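Bench notes, afternoon.
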Amino acid sequence: MSKLLLRHGFVYSDGAAWTGKHDRWLRSHRTGDLAFEMAFDASYEAVVQTVARRDRLDRAIELMAADSQFTPMVNRLGCLRGIAPLTGFALAVEITNWHRFTGQTIGSFLGLVPSEYSSGQTRQLGGITKTGNSHARRLLVEAAWHHRRDYRPTTRSVLQARWEKAPEDVRLHGQAGVNSRQRTPSSAVDPLRRSKETSRDRQRRHRP
């Protein structure tokens, strides 16, 4: 549809595409000879059917996410900003058993570990390998982009609703974490932070 209009010199530059406003703009350009109108109708019908199919599948997946063996994990993941039921259900299905991974090994499964080029005493790290589960990796990357945005009042209400659906142990653990951070004295901050440092961080900190 976009390429058809572009070929005839119609370029949309008034905000995001595939919105209600963009749809009205599309239908306003159904003018021309018979061949153009036939091509336009066929392309527009394909867009409408694709969007309807996507929405129908999204609703079906949301129903499955709300009543399946993965529902507790979906509710847990939903407490994280940027992970909606669709994303949470996909991650739960792709990874399945989260206890088989640790914070160090899940990166390899997702292809998020750096590539390495070593020769003799030389060790050089490159970009991520991208050899793991590409679908789960893409979902996490998209969630991270949503997570970095500023919070809005609507976002807080959505997260609060998801938090109330989370299992009780998750809510209790989260509340305990908040209380412990409130009670943590300033003198304990450095040891806690240093316990998470890597050997390279420690060498850099102690380097003259």
